Amino acid sequence: MASSLNPHPNAHPLAGAYSNAFQIAAQLDARAARTLPEVTAAVQHYAMLLETRIKAKASGRPGPNAPTGDYRRSWTHEVSTDGFTVTAVVGTNKPQARRLEYGFVGADSLGRIYNQPPYPHVGPAVEEIRPLFIAALGDTIDDDP
Name one Pfam family in it (predicted). Predict the structure, then answer.
């Protein structure tokens, strides 16, 4: 028989309903507040490692040659947070980046014909850093308080 204190149909009339929802919510909030700086630090660290790895792979074969170093120096990273979201962007503002990574076959906008092979340096760098980054995030999230 349900009571006003406990709506469950099999509850004793004198039984109350108890919930620790507020305690659980407080613990989750505390965990999020503690985890966010750790995740931000991990994202910052691995964005820097990715940038460094891309620069290293853009320093000669099998990646692109970098005779002046200008292309290598153009790679940067930026980390931002928005609430509980942490984002890192690693990139360059150089127009040749796409051609160097993927190659180019055909005529350009000036009508010059190219058969430029790809010199992958971003993809291989991402594949090297990815498992390390995922493991680091897993360690950060799995840490007990």
Answer: HK97-gp10_like
